[in-house]
Amino acid sequence: MNFEFSEEQNLLREQAQSFLKDQCSLKAVRAVLDGDQPFDQGLWQKVSEMGWTATTIPEEYDGLGLSYLELSVIAEELGRQIAPIPFSSSVYLATEALLLAGSDAQKAHWLPQMASGAVIGCLAVNESAGEPGPESLTSRFRGGSLTGSKIPVADGDIAHLAIVLAAADEGPTAVLVDLNQAGVSRSSVQTIDPSRSHARVDFDGAAAEVLGQPGDGWSLLQRVYDRAAVLFAWEQVGGAETALNMAKEYALGRFAFGRSIASYQAIKHKLAHAYVKNTLARSNCYYGAWALSTNAAELPLAAATARVAATQAYYYASKENIQTHGGMGFTWEFDCQFPYRRSKLLAVTIGSEAVWQEKLISAVESAHAA
Amino acid sequence: MDFNDTQQEAEFRSEVQAWLASNVPTEAELSGLDYIGRAKLWQKRKYDAGWACLRWPKEHGGRGASAIEQVIFNQEESKFETPDGIFAIGQGMCAPTMMTWATEAQNQRFMPPLASGEEVWCQLFSEPAGGSDLAALRTRAVKDGDDWIVNGQKIWTSGAHYSDYGVLVLRTDPDVPKHQGLTYFFLDMKSPGIEIKPIKQISGGANFNEVYFTDVRIPDAQRLGAVGQGWQVALTTLMNERASIGGGGGGCNFDSVFDLAKRVNLAGRPAIEDPSVRRKLADWYVQESGLKFTGYRSMTALSKGEIPGPENSIGKLVGAPKQQDMASFALDLLDQHGVIWDSELSEKAGLFQAAYMGSPGLRIAGGTDEIMANIIAERVLGLPQDVRVDKGIPFKDVPTSAS
Fold it and tell me: What mean pLDDT do residues A69-74 have?
């Protein structure tokens, strides 16, 4: 049994932790939240210089060719610091989609620029409220041209490249769109987590090219989501630990009725249950990381298991962190808002808890039918 | 990251597999024996071949094996239908305490027959006035020459009626604060003055007993640790209890409820097609999977010769309530048939009903949900203890009721 990260991977974790502690404190998150910059450009540049954006990109495309275990380590640490950068959009979603379905020419054009961080990618699927489906797409791709509106697109206002799901004659199709062109207009939208920017993106006859096979877009999207779900889950676990630690530190120092509130069972049990949820989520993330890094046939099940557990853990820890802080936790001045905002942002991006619960049971049914 | 054995582990596993394949008792060999006889037959066979209590030193009847080898043996043994053990408390909790605190001569006398199953041990800790607050126990031991004379009552003693020996904590000094007045002993369960009464549970079974002591004599030589040091000795036992008592049991797990949901109808279609059913099942899958892979992480630590982290402390707190919630849900799926508890008429011979009626006990035995949450909060997260109003007060002055 060797169900653990290697020494090299743990070393990477230590480096990531000390780097992020220095470069991405919660003050950096607050600066983006309060300021008018859509993301922390300095941090993005440093993260790119360290090669994090290049982690799983093969060396032939100027990547590092490392495994998904290394990327899992980075994801957890970025999640722990609630990093205000477009890492999930560009690395877990756009890069993964290109790696899965890009032609040699597409990969040769885009991946080196994404590895260096010069190009930020994003994924545009949703158009209206509710879970999107292959029949619900109103964006239209025909003859190399894309028309329609996507809202919200995570990092759609700062990205250079979008992978867009659109209806086509062959069926739902994924297309690559260079966002810096005349047929594209974008505007930022207000969200519950202003430390990560979102946009409305309108395409009016924008030039686009097919990614993968025409009509195969929905199936490709599911494969990208299964992979990204593991990495999102690691970010969520990292954030959930931050929320639990904030609650713990505050409870230890806060006195009421003559003693530390951390000595009251009402608080202790709340935090013990957060620890339980975080531990279940972490162990399930190990399972997801193993499945992703080995390309296991059970990846859809492992990904859904990690994703559901991590979504539940982060929500619980972040809401009970505010509760443990009492009124101060509800103030803008305190940092409790960051994990609470981020937990819901991560929970509804790439499909909500209910969506992944359904995927989990479907995957169990497939396994039993096989 | 992989789930593979090291070469050494793989060799050990095949050795275990080969031995089990030709030595697990057949139904013919077991026929005519009650569950105690069956358990003893299997344990003795393992002992004779050197497969009992693997981690114990050889001179005490073990194999001197590593922790990961014990895990591998357990995994392989669980693939066979073997008689249910009655030795978990004796071998898992009493033995580590004896090996830490008893004399070498005592261990040479008592450990081999405990390993072989020829002698069964029980643990007498809880009392009517001392459950979660174990140190509030009141059964008195008074020194009389080279003996102690014991009077009082223990409760929730699993297997007392078939045990040969037991370990117990007694109050030797009521004039000092509660933790300081305790002393730890082991005793012969056939001693004169011991009366054992089974407790019938809401599940219909009677795994526990009340044990009454009337002028029972325990030789001072059977004291473990110093007089007044009983709480410290008891912690050795309790540390091993939480490792021995899991949250599982009853067989009401994800697979059984998932299978049931495919076979019964809800709103005119198979229940498994109902989104609310699917969401609940997904949550339980996540919990089971999380516990399984938490176990794998601990196994990895053992495999490397390291001590597992605190993550395993969540097992009972997750497993026991899950068992209850899943059983309750399964009965709901059965609709009115859920009330039927009959080995012929019920689904799976009444497995879900047995789990429904048995799971309240799982949430209490070996540390209630609330105590387990306290343990995680205090020992894992480092939060302070709750205020203890009996701290520093002579035990005899501690209030015991509202009046």
Answer: 98
In tens, the pLDDT along B156-184 reads: 999 999 999 999 999 999 999 999 999 99
CA–CA dist A186, A160 (Å, integer) = 12
Q: Count of CB atoms within 10 A of residue B67's CB?
A: 18
Within this chain, do residues B209 and B307 fall inside the same structural domain, yes or no?
A: no
- Mutation target to probe the A interface, by most A beta carbons within 10 A, among B70, B263, B285 is B285
Residues in chain A: 370
Pairing outcome for strands B194-199 and B208-219: antiparallel
User: Does the beta carbon of A357 lie under 8 angstroms from any beta carbon of chain B?
Assistant: yes
- Between strands B121-124 and B165-171, the pairing is parallel
Beta bridge partners of A356: none
Asked if residue B98 has pLDDT above 80, the reply is yes
Instruction: Count structural domains, chain A.
Output: 3
Beta-sheet strands, E only, within B125-267: 140-144, 147-155, 165-171, 182-188, 194-199, 208-219, 223-224, 265-266
Report in angstroms the alpha-carbon separations of A181 from A103, A186, B206, B289: 22, 11, 78, 47
**Structural domain tally of chain B?**
3
- The answer to whether the Cβ–Cβ distance between A3 and B299 falls below 8 Å is yes
What is each CA distance from B275 to A110, A254, A325, A362, in whole angstroms?
41, 43, 36, 11
User: Rounded to an integer, what distance in angstroms lies between the CA atom of residue A86 and that of residue A121?
Assistant: 8
Nearest to A283 among B281, B297, B382 (CB): B297
Containing structural domain, residue A281: 218-369
Mutate which of A3, A234, A259, A311 to test chain B, going by most B C-beta atoms within 10 A? A3
Domain span at residue B194 reads: 121-235
Does position B248 have pLDDT exceeding 70, yes or no? Answer: no
* pLDDT digits 0-9 by tens, B46-60: 999 999 999 999 999
Does B254 lie in the same domain as B303?
A: yes
Q: Is some CB atom of chain B closer than 8 A to the CB atom of A280?
A: yes
Element (H, E) at A169: none
Instruction: Give catalytic residues of B, as residue numbers.
Output: 241
Q: How far apart are CA B198 and CA A315, in angstroms?
A: 46
Q: Which of A365, A192, A341 is nearest to B272 (CA)?
A: A365
Among residues A67, A109, A65, A117, which one has the least CA distance to residue A91? Answer: A117
Secondary structure class of A2 (helix, strand, coil):
strand
Name the DSSP class of A167.
Answer: B
For B317, the closest of A267, A276, A281 (CB atoms) is: A276
C-beta atoms of B376 and A276 within 8 A:
yes
Asked if residue A2 lies in contact with residue B1, where contact means CB atoms within 8 angstroms, the answer is yes
Query: Does the beta-carbon distance from A4 to B4 stay under 8 Å?
Result: no
C-beta of residue A338 within 8 angstroms of C-beta of residue A29:
yes
In this model, does residue B245 exceed pLDDT 60?
no
Using alpha carbons, select from A186, A157, A198, A161 the residue that is nearest to residue A176. Answer: A161
Q: Which residue matches tokens 């078939």? A: B162
Contacts with B2 from chain A: Cβ below 8 Å: 2-3, 290, 294
A290/B282 Cβ within 8 A: no
B183 domain-assigned = yes
> Which residue, A167, A190, A214, sits at the end of a domain?
A214
What CATH number did the domain enclosing B311 receive? 1.20.140.10
**The pTM of the whole model exceeds 0.90:** yes
- The string of pLDDT tens digits covering residues A310-343 is 999 999 999 999 999 999 999 999 999 999 999 9
